[in-house]
Structures are given as C-alpha cells and as structure tokens.
Amino acid sequence: MEIAGKPGPLTARAAGLVACRRCGRVHPGGAQICQRCGGPISSREIKSLQRVWAWLFAGMILYIPANIYPMLLTSTLVSKRESTIIGGVIDLAHHGSYGVALIVFVASVMIPIGKFIAISYLALSVQWPIRQHSHLRHRLYEVTDFIGRWSMIDVFVVAILSSLVQLDTVATINPGIAAVSFALSVAFTMLSAQSFDSRTIWDSDRPAE
Amino acid sequence: MEPDDPDPLSPLIACPGCDALYRVVDVPDNARARCNRCGAVLITPRPGAFARITALSLAAVVLMVAAVFFPFLALDAAGLHNFASVFDAVRAFSSGLMLPLSVAVAGLIVLIPLARLAAILYTLAPMALGRAPLVHARAAFRLAEALKPWSMAEVFIVGVAVALIKVSGLATVSLGPAFWAFVGLVLVTVLQDNFMCRYSIWKSLENRAP
C-alpha cells in the first residue's frame, strides 16, 4: 500500500507539461488544443469542482420529487393505483420476486444515494486535500463513474410498461412525474461524475510545483 | 516512436486517470500497458482491430434497425392483445408526460448508439480499407468517445427483464424478434469495445492524416 507523502511518479504537470486526457498526447505548458486529437486540453480542469457541485446539487434536488411522487400510474377494471420507487420495490417483494426487487432497489436507491455520498466525499477530499488513500479514492471514482448509468433501469421499466400495457379498460399503465425527475437526476449525477478531474486526486501525492 | 519525429514530446504518454508520465514502449498485440500508479489501461493493441471494429459496427447498425422496427414485446390479457415495437412506443406517446420520457428513451437506446456507431464507422472504415482518414475524423472520434457513457442499450435490456416480471401477474408477455436483436446488439457492442484501443486509434489518425 501507499505511504502518505511518498513522492509519486513524475506527472505531466510536475514536468511543466499539459496532457490530453483523450489521447494521452503531451504538450508544452500553456497549450490549449491537443495536436493529436484536436480537442481542448488543460493541465487540470479549471472550475472542475464548481461544475461537479452544481450538477450534483441539481441531481440531489431532483431526487426528492423522484421519491415523493408516483413513478407508475396503474389502472385496471377494478382498481387505480399509484406507486413510487420504493412502492414498486415493495410490490415486487410481495410478489415473491426478491431478486428483481433487489436489482431495482440497488439501481434506484442505493446507487443514486451512494453516488451523492461518493462524489461529495471525492470533491471535498480535493478541496481540502487529504494525502491518504489516493488509490482507494481513485477506485471509488472509477466505480462511481462506471455505475451511474445503471440507475436508468427504472426509467426504462416505466417506459416499457407504459407503452406495452395499454389495453383500454382492462389495464393501462402510465408514467408518473417521478419518472421524468428521476431520469434527470440520474443524468445530472452522471454529468457531475464526468466533470470531476480524477487527476486532482493524485496531486497531493507530490507537493504541487 | 518515429526516429525523425520533430517533436520530442511525441514519444511520451500521460495517464488520463492520474497524469503520470511515461515513455511509450512497443506493446505486443493482445497485451496491455497499464498505469503503474492508478491502473488505468493506457495501450492495448489488437491485431486487425480497425477491420474488426468496422465489421462489428456494421453488424450493430443492422441489428439496431431490426431492434427498432420489429415487434419487441407482445402482451395478452383477458382476450386483448397488444404488441409494441420500439418505434411504435416512441411514436404513440408523443403527448403529455410521455413526451419527454419517450424522447429520453429513444435518445438513450436508439439515437445516441446510432450516432456513436456512425461516428466510429466514419473514423475507422477508411483506415480499415487502408486509406487516409476522412476530414473531421478526429472530431468524429471525439464525439464517439463523448457519447459512450450515454449509450445505454445494455441497461435497457435489464429494464426489459424487470418490466417482464412486473407485468407477469397482469398479463402474458412474449418476447418478439426485436428483443433478441437487442441482445445481439449488446454482445456486439461489448466485443467492439474489447477491440478498441484509444491510443492506437488516435496515433493512427495522426500518422495517416493526409
């Protein structure tokens, strides 16, 4: 394991160079456009943290209505009912589909909330630099970035159910407002994770310049 | 690694994950060069990658067309029958609350994956045929890379599975050909990703530019 304060390998920044995160090309300091891939580059993404926090707060705020309001409106001949995200999980468990209930619970509750915590922690750990656990924090970032899209499962379930179950009076399923706010919440937290510049995790490895 | 390269920085590579600086070495086919510090994969060349990625992308386009227009799921309940293709679903609900939802779903599972496939084909097909890359090939590949996290076909498949179980108490559901086209699409996409070495592609775009 890593020892706190141990100097890491030479970084492009410490060598006075600017690296491209898309293609790996290294440029002299001050370069703004990558010669190889033509995209914009910067040594560290300026205002990265501001964008991370902005998207994260937007995602957190939208996650509230996503849980309060109904996700699905089901009406059959005899009944009409609305179910929220948690309500849908409980329904599935009542039907004995524990595995599927678990998948939906993980995708719609644990991953979003885990992402809020993980991104906040990563951003704070860069803002007030802590020198420990760079490997763990990097791993956490990779997992957060990779797993975010899987939260969309419930949105797709709602879309499929409501386009399929349209049997006039016998049974219809329609999406609730929570489906839209949940989809936006997931998209915003994905943008938040993408805005984070993981290179900043490692900057405290070696005293900055 | 060109000996007469005028730029001394060209043989260097920086890790996209942690900014560690390395000198590029020759990586044998099917091997992987990883960052020593954060473990990110830097270079992973595959023999014949461009031709394979091009072929897989073409296959994916065909499967996508099938997935969109063939019936996806069919449903029977109390003597009533309903089936939906993805195209029907998107078109039928272009009103009210379903509008933003169907735009989002169509985007995430059809339009963005298609745009990404088109961008990959535009970048790699000429090089797979041994020609110089087209103009704007770099922009096309940057687009393909940016769209990657938003291309959600595999997430959609899991969504279908969950939806099937949810509706099973209400009606009988059967899978149409489009569902299997979608499963094929996910497998093709995974294979395609496996052949994709970003560094090699960027390097070739640079070296073979007219």
Notes on the protein architecture:
The complex is a heterodimer of chains A (209) and B (210). Chain A has helices at 48-68, 85-94, 98-127, 134-147, 153-164, 177-195, 199-202, and strands at residues 17-19, 26-28, 72-76, 80-83, 166-167, 171-175. Chain A is α+β, with helices and mostly antiparallel strands and 209 residues long. Chain A folds into 2 domains: 1-43; 45-199, Butyryl-CoA Dehydrogenase, subunit A, domain 3. A 4-stranded antiparallel beta sheet of chain A has the order 4-3-6-5. A two-stranded antiparallel sheet of chain A has the order 1-2. In chain A, strand 3 (72-76) and strand 4 form a beta hairpin. In chain A, helix 1 (48-68) runs antiparallel to helix 6 (177-195) and helix 3 packs across helix 4. Chain A is elongated and about 70 Å long. The relative contact order of chain A is 0.18. Chain B is α+β, with helices and mostly antiparallel strands. Chain B has helices at 49-69, 86-92, 98-128, 137-147, 153-167, 177-195, 198-207, and strands at residues 12-14, 21-23, 33-34, 41-43, 71-77, 80-85, 172-175. In chain B, the strands form 3 sheets. Chain B has a 3-stranded antiparallel beta sheet with strand order 6-5-7. In chain B, a hairpin with a 2-residue loop joins strand 5 (71-77) and strand 6. In chain B, helix 1 (49-69) runs antiparallel to helix 6, helix 2 (86-92) crosses helix 3 (98-128) and helix 3 (98-128) packs across helix 4 (137-147). At the A-B interface, strand 2, helix 2, helix 3, helix 4 and helix 5 of A face strand 1, strand 5, strand 6, helix 2 and helix 3 of B. Chain B: The chain crosses the membrane at residues 53-75, 95-125, 146-165, 171-191. Chain B: Keywords: Membrane, Transmembrane, Transmembrane helix. Chain B: InterPro entries: PqiA-like (IPR007498). Chain B: It holds the Pfam family PqiA.
